[in-house]
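Researcher: We're teaching a course module on how sequence relates to structure. For the next exercise, students receive a sequence and then see the predicted structure as tokens, so they can try to spot secondary structure elements on their own. Here is the exercise chain.
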Amino acid sequence: MSCTVPAAPAPPALKDLPKVADDLKTQLEGFKPSNLKNADTQEKVVLPSAEDVAAEKTEKALIEGIERFDTSKLKHTLTQEKNPLPDKEAVQLEKTHQTLLNGVEHFDKSTMKHTETEEKVVLPDKEVIEQEKGQKNLISGIENFDNSKLKHAETLEKNPLPTKEIIDQEKSA
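Model: And here is the predicted structure for the students to work with:
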């Protein structure tokens, strides 16, 4: 068995090649790579951080866990409706409430008399507030005093009363 390799196509003839303009040809021949400016290349592709990768893995594992969940392990339960329809009393109460709201909403304000409002609440000034704070701090200090921090002390009388003999001496002098 013999294999024949097809012949490669012949290169195009010089006359078939495209013509280059003379001014472009002289520019290409006079090109010097040293005339080019240096440019720093900045890569625009930003790789995700380790936290992003970890979060994505966690999310993927969660989704896979949901997809592979075995529903045969679930227990059957009966659903109980906890929202029954209202009874007659609740409906009547709602109607009464609605009637009251309508009365308030459609009230004729022109039948009202004008009155002046007088504020009687007087707030304490800064000095009174500071005085109250001082009293509260004093009271809390007394209430929260810790007797266990006190040291035992012996009382010595430095000014004893004079004896009977000393009093008699002073009288006679």
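Model: If you want an answer key for the exercise: Residues 113 and 155 are 79 Å apart (CA to CA). The chain has five helices and no strands.
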